């Protein structure tokens, strides 16, 4: 009987010892798993950020290319407008404008608005002259845009603003408003 009792105490003492060792072992394993989890999360996060940065970079290049193409198309329309004034030929500007386009301004505090044909007729009635412009603002959202230029036709200076809509592959000016600069 003593033998059974000694065995039982030996098993209990062994269980206590193994329980402490077991807990210590679990603690070490838990710390290693936690460390590996953190390292893995940081590595995966870094890879995701790297991929995202690469995708964002590619998207930025695509947006910049689209923006450049849009800008070139819009400036093509504005170039035709200025070229018509430079050469004294309103027909040059016609492809830049929608057939329903208008031209508006304020005269003595009153709104004046006419069909764009009045602009074409005005250019055609004038002699060729020096003309140039500088783009000051361009705001594009999809297939619509607003452009502002500082222009000079002969000695006269203007602040011209255009609203444009993309029509197929071309940008068309749908309205021109202006202010004479003094």
Q: Separation of termini?
A: 120 Å
Class from helix and strand fractions: alpha+beta
Low-confidence stretches: none
H/E element order: HEEHEEEE
> Tally of extended strands?
6
Round the mean pLDDT to the nearest integer and report it: 82
User: Strands of the largest sheet, in order across it?
Assistant: 2-1-6-5-4-3
Give a structural overview.
The protein has 182 residues and is of the alpha+beta class. Strands 2-1-6-5-4-3 form a six-stranded mixed β-sheet, covered by helices on one side. The longest helix is centred in the N-terminal third of the chain and has 86 residues. It is rod-shaped. The N and C termini lie far apart (120 Å). The mean pLDDT is 82.
Helices and strands in order:
Layout: H1 2-87, E1 97-107, E2 110-115, H2 117-125, E3 131-141, E4 144-153, E5 156-167, E6 170-181
Parallel strand pairs: 1-6
Antiparallel strand pairs: 1-2, 3-4, 4-5, 5-6
Short note summarizing the structure:
With 182 residues, this protein is α+β, with helices and mostly antiparallel strands. It contains 2 helices and 6 strands. Helices cover 52% and strands 34% of the residues.
Looking at this protein, list some descriptive labels.
single chain, 182 residues, alpha+beta, 6-stranded mixed sheet, 2 helices, 52% helix
């Amino acid at each position: 009987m003593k033998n059974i009792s000694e065995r039982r105490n030996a098993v209990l003492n062994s269980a206590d010892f193994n329980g402490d060792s077991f807990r210590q072992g679990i603690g070490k394993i838990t710390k290693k798993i936690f460390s590996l989890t953190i390292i893995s999360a940081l590595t995966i996060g870094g890879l995701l950020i790297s991929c995202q940065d690469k995708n964002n970079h590619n998207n930025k290049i695509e947006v910049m290319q689209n923006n450049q193409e849009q800008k070139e198309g819009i400036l093509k329309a504005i170039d035709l407008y200025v070229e018509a004034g430079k050469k004294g030929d309103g027909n040059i500007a016609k492809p830049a404008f929608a057939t329903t386009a208008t031209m508006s301004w304020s005269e003595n505090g009153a709104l004046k608005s006419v069909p764009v044909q009045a602009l074409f007729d005005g250019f055609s009635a004038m002699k060729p002259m020096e003309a140039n412009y500088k783009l000051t603002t361009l705001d594009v959202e999809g297939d619509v845009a607003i452009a502002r230029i500082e222009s000079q036709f002969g000695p006269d200076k203007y602040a011209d603003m255009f609203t444009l809509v993309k029509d197929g592959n071309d940008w068309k000016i749908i309205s021109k408003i202006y202010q004479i600069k003094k």
